[in-house]
Amino acid sequence: MKETPKYQVVADHIRQLIMEQQYTENQRLPQELVLAKTYNVSRITVRNALNLLVNEGLIFRIQGSGTYVKDNHPDATPTYKASLDLFDFEQVSAVLLNFAVDKPESSIVKRLKMSPYDFAYEIEREIRKDDQIIAIQHLYMPAKIIQGIQMAVLKASIYQFLQADLGLELGSAVRTISSRIADETLVKKMRLTEKEALITVEQRSFLKNGQIFEYVSTDIRSTQFTLHDTIDLT
Question: Which Pfam families does its entry note (predicted)?
Fold first, then answer.
């Protein structure tokens, strides 16, 4: 009987650890040299094993940072959609409020798995329907991944630009949904007559290779909210 390749044995064991949640979502895996010593194999064997798991969509690499367990749990059943957009831009419009390239605050750095020295696009925009503001959206994208974005693009779906103009292969997104009462800042920005309940949708979006390329936080008037779930375009 043909012996199973060593890289396959290593990949099978790491995969099992991920399935058993011994390596949890967003956790960085040990360095290649550490894994090589653990499994008593060469570094090349470890690299081949990790490449296999990257291709399976279980882990992803960030240059200069390491290898991480992907957010989407392997057992999760995704809801397939044609777009990562939260809104249908044939029904709504976007008005740009702020556009900047800067070093983001630490919470955004952590969410995007960036270096604290890296720059990111910081975008704020209104989402309107029938001239009424229904949401305020904040978007953050690493500048070294999303290059050459134009302000005109931000008035509609960004993802069409990323695919058609930048040639990026979009893969999946994970959404977290919560609720809160609008604070005074949002009451003013959304031109509300009083404080009201808002739905907050946080989304982290990934390329097909597992690299996170976006964090978005959207505050939506609860009367305008439609539920969407985890998305996978692959």
Answer: GntR, UTRA
